[in-house]
Amino acid sequence: MILVVGGAGYIGSHLVKELVKTNEVVVLDNLSTGHRWAIDERAQFVEGNLGSEADLEHVFSTYQIDAVMHFAANSLVGESVVDPVKYYENNVAATLTLLKTMMKHNVKKFIFSSTAATYGIPSVDMITEETSTSPINPYGCSKLMIEHILADYAHAYDMEYVVLRYFNAAGAYETAEIGESHDPETHLIPIILEHLLGEREHISVFGSDYDTEDGTCIRDYIHVTDLANAHIAALQSLLANETKTATYNLGNGLGYSVKEVIDTCERVTGKKANVVMADRRAGDPARLVASSEKIYRELGWKAERSLEEIIASAWKWHQSQVKVVK
Ligand code: UFG
Fold first, then answer.
1. Best CA proximity match to 254, nearest among 297, 287, 295, 214
2. Could you list the residue ranges forming a coiled coil in this record (predicted)?
3. CA-wise closest residue to 275 among 220, 204, 197
4. Which of 59, 154, 258, 292 could form a disulfide with 216 if both were Cys (CB 3.0 to 4.6 A apart)?
């Protein structure tokens, strides 16, 4: 049985959809930002808190857990700057409670959702896992702290883990049963698509004076199903005892500017956007693009879906949301 903490959230629920095809799955989620309807019905569900010893005891004593995948975190860079306590409590302290409970029950295989935000403002165009980590906001710090804690747990308690540093997750499940549904929504692609559906008056481009070709920020967008498949490759490797500890970037290796993303959304949807130039958003590095060579070399995983496919899947999902109120 695989425990997926945060399996009702955007990325967790997409992982669960893939994982239930080959494994027994139990989801622990407090539904604070995730949705009950997003959890695949083949998975067991326990409503509870990652930071609650009682809730964790219940899960670990009820189910025979072979490995844990941890998606339950707050992940908004801007919010972390104004409310760091929330990030250190939920992302660090609560995760420590989970790790302690795992050790107590002798569960030693762990997959951790980390982030490109651990790199801060990188000094290189293509970020590899060797690029130095120097986060510039509490969100990135909170994730890097757990990475350090995991290294110490591996050394002291033989914990085996894979850290996956996501770049910009986007897109929706192929059938559009589930997709990105944040409240409030801050991410670029859903904001553009909501605008193109008439739900927002315009799109603000945060900064057009960056040191990039068209002056807007460049990001590496990765389809959420590609992300899910990387977790499954990492899990198989841990369960087969082929990996003891590893850290991998998860991206497409391609950078797209905010303007290019807007253009692609217009092309995919056939609609014209009303674009307004705005000030820079605090904490945004100009360019974040991943080399994912290492995970391809070691686990044979690479991203399969293009930016067009990411946007087309998200578009299908957003259109379905207009008709079905969940
Ligand atoms: N942007 C706009 N207008 C908007 C929204 C976003 O111009 O209305 C820009 C942002 O300034 C940024 C780019 O679009 O340059 C992408 O922004 P997102 O908010 O979609 O994503 P981020 O790159 O800020 O953040 C994502 C994850 C974080 C993670 C980070 C790591 O959401 O959790 O990638 O790079 F930390």
1. 287
2. none
3. 204
4. 258
In short, whether 204's Cβ falls inside 6 Å of ligand 1 is yes
Res 302: pLDDT: 97
- Domains, the chain: 2-170+221-250 (3.40.50.720), 188-219+253-323 (3.90.25.10)
pLDDT tops 70 at residue 325: no
Ligand 1 pocket, 187 CB below 6 A?
yes
Question: C-alpha distances in angstroms, 145 versus 79, 169, 306?
Answer: 18, 22, 32
The predicted complex's ipTM stands at 0.96
What's the token pair of residue 239? 């369960």
For 49-93, how does the pLDDT look when each residue is reduced to its tens digit (9 = 90+)? 999 999 999 999 999 999 999 999 999 988 999 999 999 999 999
Give the residue, by CA position, lying nearest to ligand 1 atom 14. 188
Contacts of 207 (CB under 8 A, 6+ apart): 215, 216, 217, 278, 279, 280, 281, 284
Planar angle of CA 121, 124, 128, nearest 5 degrees: 95
